[in-house]
Amino acid sequence: MINGELELIRMVNPFRNLLYDLRAAKELKNFERLPFYAEILNEQNTLRARQMLARVYVSKGVVQQKSLTVQGTISDSVDPYWRQSIYYGVFSKDDPDRILMTARLIRPVNRLESLQLHLDDLSPGVREKLQQIDLKKVAEFAAYVKEPGLDPLTSRVVSLYLIREMVWDSRKRGIETWLFGMRPELQRKYARNFGPALHRLGKKVHLGRFNAIFVPYKVDIEAASRRLQTSSYWRLGSRTVSSFIGKVHYKNH
Questions:
Q1: Cβ of 77: how many Cβ atoms within 10 Å?
Q2: Which of 17, 33, 76, 221 lies deepest, with the highest CB count within 10 Å?
Q3: Which of 147, 143, 54 is CA-nearest to residue 97?
Q4: 7: Cβ–Cβ under 8 A, 6 or more apart, which residues?
């Protein structure tokens, strides 16, 4: 029933979504300059991404101000997972110091329970299946935040771009499965983006020591990659991005 609900969500207002995408593509083609680029973050920009995450999470009540360090990051007592993470970011080309959006992939250390997603919140059957996954082939998609005040059109394309690059980079690293906790209000967005590659794992889950409830999901990276190349939604986004972003230059973390 859970994944049946996802199928229903994917069918909601398909023409409205298509019209929005077409309008986004049309407006983006009027840009005279390439607006942004993506990177795997170095140490300095990882710090900036962590500071952005802290500001956003405090504003949303996910963490308290007292949980921040003097550097403006979330303390290790609340977020120790940053040390086992690969950080990604999308930057403005007009202002390279401006991070438009960032996310991270948390890699497990020795056991799946080292991720921030609380496996105990899931049913025994789901936990058993997840425990069978090779640790080298799984990562947790997390800390997905955007610059406050980013306009909806830019946010949509930047989000598409960032997730596309993270999916493709995951394939290069041999990662086959993403686990993550999603805020309920984002369910339609992810269902549209990932299609059948997205699978709901239960009703709710806690993440680390954060003060919020999320909905647990997994993404089949191979299926997501195929969708990136074959779905009309993603093809449109890829053409839009390719026209204005050009070649992505990754830097080793």
A1: 9
A2: 221
A3: 147
A4: none
Neighbours of 15 (CB within 10 A): 7
CA distances from 161 to 12, 41, 59, 165, 214 (A): 23, 16, 25, 6, 24
Q: pLDDT by residue for the chain (253 residues), tens digit each?
A: 344 443 433 334 444 455 545 554 444 443 334 466 778 889 999 999 999 999 999 998 889 999 999 999 999 999 999 999 999 998 887 787 889 999 999 999 999 999 999 999 999 999 999 999 999 999 999 999 999 888 877 787 788 778 888 998 999 999 999 999 988 888 777 887 788 899 999 989 988 888 778 999 999 999 988 877 665 555 555 554 454 444 333 333 3
